[in-house]
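Quick one: structure for this chain?
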Amino acid sequence: MIFNSKISITLDKLSLNMQKPILVFKIGTSSITDALGNLDEEVVQNIAKQLATLHKEFQIVIVSSGAVGSGKKFIKNYSGKIEERKAAAAIGNPLLIQKYSAAFSKYKIPIAQSLCERGHFSDRAKFLQLRATYEELWKNGIIPIANENDVVSSRELKFSDNDELATLLAVGFGAQLLLIGTSVKGVLDGDGNLIKRIEKFDDKVMSLATKETSAAGLGGMISKLTFAHMASSLGIKVHIFSAKEKNSLLNAVKEKTGTICIPKNVSKSARHKWLASGSLVIGSITVDEGAQKALLKRKSLLAVGVTAINTDFEIGEAIEIMDVNANVFAVARTKISSKILQKNIKQQNLILAHADDIVLI
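Got it. Here's what it folds into:
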């Protein structure tokens, strides 16, 4: 893939010149709808009131679930099949936007709908255009409301849930804060007590989440912790909190509620952040200990260090790099295809991925 360096430089400078820091707020289906899937207008009004206050300090992106939940009541004998979900989203999205528009109109804040697809993040040029569009909206005081374009997204290229979409937007735009509104008060320990701070995402922390999801949504706490880990590892502060509590967003920004995930101090370039988070990973390889040590020292990846091709890939596609214990420790964009690699896997000095196109994660 060939990137337009002039566009990249221009947009990177534009981002750096944005006067206000960026805040991404994600709210889940169970937090914004009732048991029947109807939008809870009181919650929407409360969100608008708080974000209107925060709008003075931040450039804001809202990632709102609730479209499928709002539309499914119009689908006869709804059972959750992919076609039914797409149809429900097509009905529910305009209803969702209409409610938000009415709520924000009280504060003279216009909103815009942004339907996103994985291609907006897997293709650098599309991503830069998406970011330029958001920056134009912010410049005019408009808050974009993002959701997946369910109607056209294929099963293979769907976001896992809106936690992922919110994280990709936060990382790609260089957000300072990612607020994840849920139906519970935050991350809880085994006794049901709130964990107020997460300094490090280890097995102990990840074991706190179950694989259960809400009745209305796709994600659960394991999804939130997974993407909170990604965002915080790339320098973004994440708050997981109950969106239904009074002044919950304002209190989350002030670190007075929920669980705070402490961000790492990182200095990755915008392109590397994009590669590590938004890039659509196609292939997977395993490397030996020598290659892993070289990559950790910021060296290029040579074909001779590859011990297994786990999934095929083409030139320019993104791949996961796994160590001997099957742990993914890096993402890279390839200079050769898996077919060429397979034929020349023992060749000395054949570069599979240049150091500039490798991100440690």
